[in-house]
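Support case: user asked for a sample of complex input and structure output to validate their parser. Sending the pair below.
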Amino acid sequence: GAVVSQHPSRVICKSGTSVKIECRSLDFQATTMFWYRQFPKQSLMLMATSNEGSKATYEQGVEKDKFLINHASLTLSTLTVTSAHPEDSSFYICSASLTSTVYEQYFGPGTRLTVT
Amino acid sequence: AQSVSQHNHHVILSEAASLELGCNYSYGGTVNLFWYVQYPGQHLQLLLKYFSGDPLVKGIKGFEAEFIKSKFSFNLRKPSVQWSDTAEYFCAVNADSWGKLQFGAGTQVVVTP
């Protein structure tokens, strides 16, 4: 149980275009979903926290107009990287929590974004 | 500011050796503690967690961790590693007031046959 999927697993896009990444909780309803960015050989950096039906809460330094997060249902959250640039190339990971707290998160497999 | 420190960034050991990975956090209040593992090419998986009670926590695949409150530590141990334990290990800490998980930098563990 508690499976989280992400789509796509890999995406290559050109500079200036937008890319949407989907995060789904497959067998449970996720009150809260989280989006992380992982740089090579580094830890996960939380980008934002989203609760179903409300605006996402972004971490300091994360541009909310660039990284649009939508949490339309209890099983789906999307991250859209707008006007992507090469420096946005990274590994993006989502996670989902059963509760509104963060006691336990279930992680998706991640999406490798490469911006050319 | 709260922080989570993992002492070793890279550990190489032979099969059957014992493993201990250090994790310390800086926060004086009540915390929830986690160890996650990321096998090559796979997503993060929960190894074990501590919320309260017995400070010695047993997780999956023979791993255990001990919460020592006085030392602000939550070290991960396995008495005898296998080649399949090659992975990156992340310590994570959460407190009610934080609203998020704080991850350590991770430790890359390589187990040689």
